[in-house]
Specification:
The complex is a heterodimer of chains A (379) and B (538).
Chain A (H helix, E strand, L loop, with lengths): L8 H16 L7 H18 L1 H11 L14 E2 L2 H4 L15 E4 L12 E4 L1 H18 L8 E5 L10 H13 L5 E2 L1 E2 L2 E2 L1 H14 L3 E6 H13 L12 E5 L11 H12 L6 E5 L8 E3 L1 H4 L6 E2 L4 E6 L13 E8 L8 E11 L2 E7 L12 H8 L1
Parallel strand pairs in A: 1-15, 4-5, 4-8, 8-9, 9-10
Antiparallel strand pairs in A: 2-3, 6-7, 10-11, 11-12, 13-14, 14-15, 15-16
Chain B lengths: L13 H11 L8 H34 L4 E4 L13 E3 L9 E6 L3 H20 L3 H16 L4 H14 L3 H13 L3 H12 L17 E5 L4 E4 L8 H9 L5 E4 L7 H12 L7 E4 L6 H8 L4 E5 L2 H8 L7 E5 L3 E6 L9 H10 L9 E7 L3 H19 L9 H20 L4 E5 L8 E6 L11 E7 L5 H5 L6 E7 L2 H14 L3 E3 L24 E5 L1
The chains are: A alpha/beta (379), B alpha/beta (538).
Chain lengths: 379, 538
């Protein structure tokens, strides 16, 4: 271990300040060395403060001093969050200040849910990351949109990180009339239509944000009302997050975008998909809105590194163009492990990556057993 | 490949064919079991070496013969004289290895109806005219041909299935050997004899041990079969079972393994052209409701393999009144008592069970329950089985995995590791120190939770008493199929009865899990008698 690590609360506050500054730094200002330095210092703190995480790192690395660069940090499989609450002890005395976000059951094989524990500091860093990122990827034109959220508000879904993130975005960028349009009864289609009409009357652009399956439900609901299209005002945009996770009918991303563009009459490059995970504080946006017609790829913010690694050995990246697992390192994961091995498959492209799908463990063909079904029916 | 080309290897000959029967244990009375075990123990090592050498040599032959050449196959088979659809489509096989294209005639509901009609009329009439003895002779002869490494279609099937599914050539060779060794003339005869009492009632009314008078037996007017891709060479079983009761078959091949059925039908039609009008293999995208309905419309019996979801969707299209044999998900389990844990050849036998078909079969073991007080003992067995798996790898390599399958396997191992590091000590990950070792194992205790163990993963669960397993398995009883029990004779018998009562349909020994006989009550049922309709003729 490096001797200079200072674990005092003072030092912790200073480090947090540095991380926040790094996130807020203009594009290009966070150089590789500064990033690496901050990552390694944060990681050392995590290893000191979370014994179970230390056990994981020791097991993967043999010895902790093998980590000389940020790339050497072993990526923690997301499943670990289903087994234990992995976070540094909170600075706050009051346990109510610690928030718990749960994952929807991701890959098969285990029926448990994962838990992400965030204290006030972690939430503050995460909110900074959310704001900086949204400003660059979704509101880069400086538009003040009416943000209509297709997700439940945080007070209805306190454990859903997506609800939290969207409320941060709505609070920071939303014009008057922004709000949440999923309630206890599901999608509030009538209210949403009224909000859109009102925005159209005042000529305020709309930003529809929500979970992908929320959009599918909305479009089904609109179709059921006999509406083929609900044109949004000029300059409007759509952001969808997350996949479907078996909750709604599944759509290929291109079909999803075609459906959204048709329904809301927004150009294809104004439909932005966002990759978010409960295990990560930062989100990764499609760059289509920024690049305008320059294709579509996921571009991580400067404080996040996404690598496409080999399923055989996640410490190795696959050759460019090959498919592998996505491993993210997120400096905004303030008090929880930085490097995460997701169960998303993807491919690196110039300057970013494409998400191709999710790993389904326990799939089997024919008469051999499929563990998901067994668990679902047996237990 | 033709007979006599250089470098050819021998088919399993006299002694191995006989020893296969010994190993499977069928055709021998129960009191001979200790003798068979002794014979097997004495011969297993040498036999395995022989099989290994033969398999490796044949795999190399097949590889050398096809290297650098892309394969293109028309996989469907339609009866001669039937106007076939003219449009040809390429099947999206998503070949794991690549270098193969599979085509099929594009079916429409109408073309499938015409095909079914042809099979029900012309095919059935043609079959009725052939004596059952002749049909069984042809089926037996076909099995022998398919056991011959010089048989060209066998080589083609091995290479094609390898390229599509990623199964190693060695595994496919072994699978074909196992399937065909248990489908020879005597096996067919004896199965039919056991299930019907008198096979000749399929030709004309005659004496049968059941029924009030002389009886005649009839197979269904049409058997429709839907195949899966998880076991190489499995479609032959459905064709064989149907033909053994003189029923025409309309088979739908799997998208991810469409080639074997057609090649096998070629063999049958060549050996006995009169079978031709009664046999068909078609392809269309599974889940296409109008086509599935047309496929099943005329069937009096439906045989289908697939996941629960596939079968549920399919059963909506099965005409009312048709009988079905739906082979859905099943699980195999192993039970090892304290006394049996020390048997020196146990790890090798378990390793074989785990390796065959790469855990893809309904017969494959999902878990081995080991009677022990500490997890260490389970871990030790897992390590020994791991060593055995490395040896097995040398002649039955694991299938090639696509990136998704690799990632899924990785996720499973990661989950075991996470559970060990972060969980409460209920699960331990055991694996070889060597990076990229071909196996990994999970040792657990407490409540049984199924683990995805395909592709050389092993799950060992430690239990205090082997009898506790019964209660652990209650939630999964309707999936129970194949159970290997290693315990002293009296306990083994008692456990066998109880676990059979719970739902298992085959109790066997470790090392024999993938080798049931033709006579096995597949899913607990009589496979041929289930197909037959009787008429008592007084």
């Amino acid at each position: 271990m490096a001797p200079e690590l200072d674990v005092s609360l003072d030092a912790r506050a200073r480090r947090m300040e540095e991380v926040t500054l790094a996130i807020e730094a203009p594009v290009g200002a966070l150089d590789e060395q500064r990033f690496g330095d901050l990552v390694l210092r944060t990681w050392r703190w995590h290893v000191e403060a979370i014994p179970a995480y230390r056990a994981f790192c020791e097991r993967r690395l043999g010895a902790l001093d093998r980590v000389a660069r940020w790339r050497d940090i072993p990526a923690l499989p997301v499943d670990a969050f289903k087994q234990a609450e992995l976070a540094c002890p909170s600075r706050a005395r009051d346990p109510a200040e610690v928030q718990r976000f749960t994952t929807s059951g991701t890959s098969g094989g285990s029926a448990r849910v994962g838990v992400a524990v965030l204290d006030a500091d972690a939430i503050s860093v995460m909110n900074t990351a959310i704001r900086v990122n949204a400003a660059r990827m979704l509101f880069v034109d400086g538009a003040r949109c009416r943000i209509l959220v297709l997700a439940p508000p945080p007070w209805l879904a306190p454990h859903m990180i997506m609800a939290h993130g969207m409320s941060v975005i709505a609070g920071a960028f939303g014009a008057e009339g922004s709000g949440f349009f999923i309630g206890k009864e599901g999608v509030e289609t009538a209210g949403l239509l009224a909000a859109v009409d009102d925005a159209r009357a005042r000529d305020v652009p709309v930003c529809l944000v929500g979970s992908s399956f929320g959009f599918v439900h909305l479009c089904d609901g609109l179709a059921a009302r006999g509406l083929d299209e609900v044109p949004l005002p000029e300059g409007s945009r759509v952001m969808d997050a997350g996949g479907y996770k078996g909750r709604s009918r599944e759509l290929a991303p291109t079909d999803f975008r075609a459906m959204i563009s048709r329904m809301f009459r927004v150009p294809d490059d104004h439909v932005v998909n966002l990759l978010g995970m409960t295990e990560l504080a930062s989100q990764i946006y499609d760059d289509c809105f920024v690049a305008r017609g320059g294709g579509r790829r996921k571009v991580p913010p400067p404080w996040v590194r996404t690598r496409v690694v080999s399923p055989d050995d996640p410490s190795l990246e696959v050759p460019p163009g090959n498919v592998g697992l996505l491993a993210h390192l997120d400096l905004a994961n303030w008090s929880r492990p930085l490097a995460i091995l997701s169960d998303d498959l993807g491919r690196a492209v110039d300057g970013g990556f494409h998400v191709l799908g999710r790993v389904r463990s326990g799939e089997a063909r024919g008469c051999s057993i499929k563990v998901d079904e067994l668990l679902a029916r047996g237990a | 490949m033709s007979r006599g080309s250089p470098g050819l290897v021998d088919a399993p000959q006299g002694i191995d064919r006989l020893l296969h029967r010994v190993r499977v244990g069928h055709g021998f009375p129960a009191f001979a079991a200790p003798l068979l075990d002794a014979v097997e123990r004495l011969t297993r090592g040498r036999r395995e070496r022989r099989v290994r050498d033969r398999t490796l040599a044949e795999a190399e032959n097949v590889r050398a013969l096809h290297v650098g050449r892309d394969l293109r196959l028309l996989v469907d088979r339609l009866p001669p004289g039937l106007a076939a659809p003219s449009r040809i489509v390429t099947i999206p096989t998503a070949a794991v290895v690549g270098g193969i294209t599979c085509d099929a005639r594009e079916q429409t509901p109408d073309s499938l109806r015409a095909l079914a009609e042809h099979l029900v009329t012309r095919g059935r009439a043609s079959l009725q005219a052939i004596p059952i003895a002749e049909i069984l002779r042809v089926l037996g002869r076909a099995s022998l041909l398919w056991l011959d490494p010089g048989y060209q279609r066998r080589g083609t099937a091995i290479e094609a299935i390898h390229r599509i599914t990623g199964f190693s050539r060695e595994m496919i060779i072994h699978a074909i050997d196992l399937e065909m060794l248990s489908s020879r003339w005597l096996d067919l005869w004896r199965t039919l004899w056991t299930e019907l009492g008198n096979p000749r009632v399929l030709d004309r009314p005659g004496w049968a041990p059941t029924g009030e008078a002389h009886a005649a037996a009839f197979g269904p007017a049409l058997v429709a079969a839907v195949f899966s891709s998880n076991i190489p060479a499995l479609p032959h079983l459905s064709y064989m079972r149907a033909l053994a009761v003189k029923a025409p078959v309309l088979g739908k091949v799997a998208t991810f393994e469409p080639v074997f059925a057609g090649l096998y039908l070629d063999t049958l039609a060549e050996l006995c052209p009169a079978l031709g009008p009664a046999l068909a293999a078609v392809w269309f995208q599974g889940g296409t409701v109008p086509l599935e309905r047309a496929l099943l419309e005329r069937a009096e019996h439906v045989i289908a393999y697939g996941s629960e979801r596939t079968l549920e969707a399919l059963s909506g299209q099965i005409p009312s009144g048709a009988r079905c044999s739906l082979h859905g998900h099943r699980m195999g389990v192993g039970l090892v008592s304290r006394e049996a844990l020390a048997a020196p050849d146990l790890p090798r036998r378990i390793g074989y069970d785990v390796a065959v078909f790469d855990g893809q079969a309904c017969l494959a073991p999902m878990v081995f329950f080991v009677e022990a007080s500490r997890m260490d003992e389970g871990a030790r067995l897992a390590e020994q089985v791991g060593d055995a798996l490395e040896t097995t790898w040398s002649w039955l390599p694991r299938r090639a995995l696509g990136v998704e399958a690799k990632a899924a396997r990785r996720a499973t191992i990661d989950r075991w590791e996470s559970a060990e590091i972060f969980g409460g000590g209920r699960i331990r990950l055991v694996r070889s120190a060597a990076l990229g070792a071909p196996w990994a194992a999970c040792v657990s205790q407490g409540t049984y939770e199924p683990q995805p163990v395909a592709d050389r993963l092993l799950h060992v669960q430690v239990v205090e008493r082997l009898e506790d397993v019964l209660s652990l398995l209650i939630p999964y009883r309707r999936y129970l199929q194949n159970v290997a029990i290693e315990a002293p004779p009296a306990r083994r018998r008692a456990l066998a009865v109880e676990i059979s009562a719970l739902g298992a349909s085959r109790i066997t020994r470790a090392g024999r899990m993938p080798t049931p006989s033709m006579m096995w009550h597949h899913d607990g049922r009589l496979c041929l008698a289930d197909l037959v309709r009787w008429s008592d003729i007084g």
